[in-house]
Amino acid sequence: MSGYKIIVMIKQVPDQGSKAGLNPDGTIDRARAKRMLNPFDRFALQAALHTKNTYGGTVTAISMGPPPAVEILLEALAHGVDQAFLLSDRRLAASDTLATAYALYKTIEYVGDYDIIYCGLQTTDGDTAQVGPQLAERLGLPQITYCEDFSVKNGKVRARRIIEGGHQEVEVKPPVLVTIANSYHPLEYKSFRGAWRVQRLQRDKEALEKIVKTVNLDDVGADPERCGLKGSPTIVAKTEKVGELGGSCTMHEGESTEHMVKEVVASGALNEFLAH
Ligand SMILES: Cc1cc2nc3c(=O)[nH]c(=O)nc-3n(C[C@H](O)[C@H](O)[C@H](O)COP(=O)(O)OP(=O)(O)OC[C@H]3O[C@@H](n4cnc5c(N)ncnc54)[C@H](O)[C@@H]3O)c2cc1C
Prior knowledge:
There is one protein chain. The protein has helices at residues 39-55, 70-79, 97-111, 131-139, 192-202, 205-211, 217-220, 257-267, 269-275, and strands spanning 4-9, 12-14, 35-37, 57-64, 83-87, 116-120, 143-153, 156-163, 166-172, 176-180, 212-215. Helix 3 crosses helix 4 (131-139). It is globular. Strands 9-8-7-10-6-1-4-5-11 form a nine-stranded mixed sheet, with helices on both faces. It has 276 residues and is of the alpha/beta class. Bound molecules: flavin-adenine dinucleotide (FAD). Flavin-adenine dinucleotide binds at residues 9-11, 38, 40-41, 44, 62-65, 93-97, 100, 104, 119-120, 122-123, 125-132, 232, 234, 236.
């Protein structure tokens, strides 16, 4: 098989460094937060681009979020993604993972044919790691989760996935959904060609809209009753700010665990920690 149709799912999240804080109702104050590409999705993006560059094909990035989420799609384009779709609709506000996965599934169906769908392992805001597996279920696809490396041979994806206490090798014939672990290769630098393409597109609104398409629930044929608060059975009962975590850290290196434990005990650091 040559020329894979690849989809990568990416999400914009609040930049953890921006200390946005919470609204009085306990939700994240997203308006004050700086925004960034979900760090886990950088690995999914790398996997998608590696597949394209090594085995041939095209990459489509899909995101669901408010209009500023177009920023991460442009970033993906600068890295070498071919086209992008942003699902943006006010009726999606307050969607839980069930509603999010439903809306994204409808968007994938709208976008069309695919061989491999890459997702990040999880996000740094919702942090549920549910969206990838839910998408696979809805699309009726086999899924390879916690994938930390893969190759494509004889039309099959051969992947090494992390399991408790070791690794598992699996081989799956596409179409398949793969969630990429953060031990996969880091995202490479933006390509000169990609960055130049984005610069040009930003000066030509019409051309940009052809490459980065914004769609709503009606476009993708999603039932609004299954989205947003109405379609979300999860109730967040309470959220609480736990304050700043932090403290000093000492690194110990040694030839054996026993040696390092002795070193830590002898340093008195443990007593100091227990006294707090
Ligand atoms: C009751 C409730 C209310 C919520 N209300 C809101 C709200 O009002 N506004 C809001 O922004 N969030 C809200 N959320 C959070 C929102 O539901 C989740 O962020 C969303 O479902 C994705 O789940 P996750 O972040 O845990 O993703 P994970 O399952 O951890 O993500 C795994 C992977 O799935 C893909 N993925 C996940 N989300 C997206 C996306 N949006 N676009 C593209 N790919 C994606 C990525 O590849 C990602 O790495 C709410 C959650 C709950 C439970």
